[in-house]
Amino acid sequence: MKAMILAAGFGTRLFPLTIDRTKPAIPFLGKPLVGYVAEYVARFGFRDVVVNLHHQPDSVIEALGDGSDYGVKIHYTREEPQILGTAGALDNARELLEDETFLIVNGKIITDIDIAAAIETHKKTGAIATMVLKENAQREKFTEVETADGLVTKFGGFPEKIQNAGFNVQDRTMKIRNPKSVIQSPLMFTGIHILEPRVFDYIPRGVYSDIVPSFYNPAIAAGERIAAHVTGGKWFELSTIPRYLDISLAILDGADNFHGSDCSISDEATVSDSIIWDDVVIESGARLHRTIIADGVRIRANEVYENAAIVRGEMVKNCTEVPEKALRGEFVGDNYVVSLAQ
């Protein structure tokens, strides 16, 4: 069985961390994010992996190479001149995927979800597709997926926040403090799904299309079985700079900081809860707390930053435009500083 990792996105909400690379190619604790995903599918026996490319494709190729460092063999597909969407990406890789059941994984996640268990669900149900779902206990801004009798029935909107509610870690439900009642957490899609080649009967040829309106909605309307595999596994999605920082620190599991290669950090600097990429210099007296310091940045003596992402200013000055969805920053000396408290 082959796997496909979706890696063509722009990563606009991660700008300026993505100014010189696409989102799946950003470093995550010393390894490209997409490298974690490649290793993840390899742990479940997937060796042939398709990776789609569009935005800054060379950054993904540089990160993954032929895949041998991650235990896989990679086939790249390019989407040119326009990005093709989540269904269009499959159409573009149709000749590589249409012979057997295949796995799709989003290239921006960190997870330990058991793919083997999801495949077993897929086989038992005889479904045309199986979506791996997870409870959205914190009611974050992910589309709700409705199910009945183990099948996906509908896609809703974003979940509403519950007033005067608390999250119970033990039973993973939202509890209303007054009155005393329990509301189950909505389900969300993890970006992991297992598909049969028949999905290509639904996917249009050679055009931009997304997977829910192009395949899932029509398939459900036609009476196809879309299995729902609900998992309790760990799952993190790194789509924004604050999420990137929070998830990085959570996975460090007690360590204060992470720094990459060829960094020079003064013993007289104070650095806490920070993620530092490669070739960074932090001079004496600098104080950093909850920061992301990108490649090649120099933090001058006695500079103080908190809750910020910092890249070299020249990179932003040479950028044609700042994406609309990006957090706004400012030039400070040689650097471009983005506050995460926006």
Key attributes of the depicted protein:
single chain, 342 residues, alpha/beta, Spore Coat Polysaccharide Biosynthesis Protein SpsA, Chain A, 2 domains, 7-stranded mixed sheet, 20% helix, 33% strand
Task: Characterise this structure.
There is one protein chain. With 342 residues, the chain is an alpha/beta fold. The chain folds into two domains: 2-156 and 188-237, Spore Coat Polysaccharide Biosynthesis Protein SpsA, Chain A; 255-339, no CATH class. 20% of the residues lie in helices and 33% in strands. It is built from eight helices and 26 strands. The protein has helices at residues 33-43, 57-64, 85-92, 94-97, 115-125, 211-221, 241-252, 313-317, and strands at 2-6, 27-28, 31-32, 48-53, 73-78, 102-106, 109-111, 129-135, 145-148, 151-155, 165-168, 173-176, 181-183, 187-195, 226-231, 235-237, 257-259, 264-265, 270-272, 274-276, 281-282, 287-293, 298-299, 304-312, 329-332, 335-339. The strands form seven sheets. It has a seven-stranded mixed sheet with strand order 5-4-1-6-14-8-15, sandwiched between helices. Strands 17, 19, 20, 22, 24, 25 and 26 form a seven-stranded mixed sheet that branches. A three-stranded antiparallel sheet has the order 11-12-13, with no helix packed on it. The protein is globular. The N and C termini lie far apart (44 Å).
